[in-house]
Write a structure and sequence with these properties.
The complex is a heterodimer. Chain A has eight helices and twelve strands. Chain A is of the alpha+beta class. Chain A folds into two domains: 215 residues, Sandwich (HSP40/DNAj peptide-binding domain); 74 residues, Sandwich (HSP40/DNAj peptide-binding domain), CATH 2.60.260.20. A four-stranded mixed sheet of chain A has the order 7-8-12-11. In chain A, a hairpin with a 2-residue loop joins strand 7 and strand 8. A two-stranded antiparallel ribbon of chain B has the order 2-3. About 7% of the residues of chain B have low confidence. Chain B has a single domain, classed as Multidrug-efflux Transporter Regulator, Chain: A, Domain 2 (Orthogonal Bundle). The chains are: A alpha+beta, B mainly alpha. Chains A and B meet through strand 4, strand 5 and strand 7 of A and strand 1, helix 3 and helix 4 of B.
Chain lengths: 327, 111
């Protein structure tokens, strides 16, 4: 099976020349629509959400996008994902021939992504080794099977509450044996961290000459959330306010991983201020939960109706507020 | 997810559960899993090769899957690429720094 090319621009429905900001907006729009928590059709929504996430993982990163564009220009149908000549990146060297490749299903990332953008791969944990090469060449005869590594897409909701995921791994034919497909129920423990590895002992490549089997490692990658970014156990989101709301204060609702929460914006709130909602972040290592910070952004109308214009003008005449020091 | 298509050539389908709690290992168990002597593992910890978050200090050292992964990766470099311990230290510091920077970059880009 040749690796199928993924058209990430099509997935995000943006033109090839789209700016970074346009790509981000497109992602957020689609992610809100298909997020597993809100999508009307859970199964279809989840599949679509994963595709969007994968596309943004690549197009949202300038370096990965550049590599992807280069790859797309050289891609031909039936391509087996070999390196374009002169491409010096390590990731290119993995053979993706079906006879030797491990194929995953259920991790949340496509084979295409794993082959070219599965980050941090080096000889040690390559999911797609060259035929006959093992990574842990123990000693002369007994060789330990290679360690196999793949990324596992985890949503923030799953990281909060824990989840179970069915992952299948198809192993290449080996020593006259047929292909083998194993299915794993992978339990994602609550409080799992980005980058954390879940080890499945002895589920990697088979050993040679009496060597033990390698391990399978699933590396947790948080799915991009349309609203929250993550720093350790804390979550951050933007809170858009009208100028008068920031000045006079307001009581409003914001969405959190635990559902809508009420938030009081105190009078005299300045742009950039972070309002903390205690305990609404992700589980902390040890115990308890991190916090959710809402960062205030003041929004202004691009145009105002005539009747409001008078009020702004009146404010402009009477206000003593000086936002900048003039030379 | 759809059921496996049995028209394809599958010889065996097994379902395995991973444990509900993340696994942790004692120093001896970790050393044995990484194929090294426990003293060597203690030495690695003293050198700071595994990072503070990995080997939790206390009455005894406890290791998790990430620690085991890093350890094996370090051992792989030492055995098969002739990397000495001083360079391992450098490599592991760089890895950690890259991970920190990647995390920061990801956060800066925002949702």
């Amino acid at each position: 099976m040749a690796v199928k090319f993924q058209d990430y621009y099509e997935t995000l429905d943006v033109p090839r020349a789209a700016s970074a900001e346009e790509i981000k907006q497109a992602f957020r729009k689609l992610a809100r629509l298909y997020h597993p928590d809100v999508a009307k059709n859970k199964v279809a929504g989840e599949a679509k959400f994963k595709e969007i996430n994968e596309a943004y993982e690549v197009l949202g990163d300038a370096e990965k996008r550049r590599r992807y564009d280069e790859l797309g220009a050289n891609w031909q149908e039936g391509d087996r994902g070999q390196a374009p000549p002169g491409g010096g990146h390590r990731g290119w060297t993995h053979s993706t021939r079906s006879e030797s490749a491990f194929e995953f299903d259920g991790t949340g990332f496509s084979d295409f992504f794993e082959s070219f953008f599965g980050g941090g791969r080096d000889g040690f944990g390559s999911p797609r080794p060259s035929a006959g090469r093992t990574d842990n060449e123990e000693e002369k005869f007994a060789r330990q099977g290679q360690n196999v590594e793949a990324d596992l897409l985890v949503t923030l909701e799953e990281a909060l509450r824990g989840a179970q995921r069915k992952v299948t791994l198809r192993r290449p034919a080996n020593n006259g044996q047929n292909d083998r497909t194993d299915t794993y129920q992978v339990r994602i423990p609550p409080g799992v961290r980005e980058g954390q590895r879940i080890r499945l002992p002895g589920q990697g490549g088979t050993g040679l000459g009496g060597g033990t089997a390698g391990d399978l490692y699933l590396r947790v990658r948080f799915a991009r959330h349309p609203d929250f970014s993550v720093q350790a156990a804390d979550l951050y989101c933007d809170l858009d306010l009208a100028p008068w709301e920031a000045v006079l204060g307001v009581r409003t609702k914001i969405s959190t991983l635990d559902g809508p929460a009420s938030l009081r914006v105190p009078p005299g709130t300045v742009a950039g201020r972070q309002l903390r909602l205690r305990g609404l972040g992700l589980p902390r290592e040890g115990r308890g939960r991190g916090d959710l910070y809402a960062t205030v952004r003041i929004q202004t109308p691009a145009s105002v109706p005539v009747e409001e214009c008078g009020l702004w003008e009146q404010l402009a005449r009477t206000s003593t507020f000086k936002p900048r020091s003039e030379p | 997810m759809s059921e496996p298509d049995f028209s394809e050539k599958y010889s065996l389908t097994l379902v395995r559960m991973t444990p509900a709690e993340p696994a942790t290992y004692s120093l001896e168990a970790t050393a044995s899993l990484a194929g090294m002597h426990p003293e060597m593992l203690r030495y690695y910890c003293r050198l700071g090769l595994l990072g503070e978050g990995r080997a939790r200090p206390g009455s005894e050292l406890i290791f998790d899957d990430d620690a085991l992964y890093e350890l094996r990766r370090l051992e792989h470099y030492r055995r098969h690429h002739g990397v000495n311990r001083k360079t391992l230290r450098l490599i592991s510091d760089l890895w950690r720094e890259i991970e920190c920077l990647q995390t920061e970059l990801r956060f800066r880009r925002g949702p």
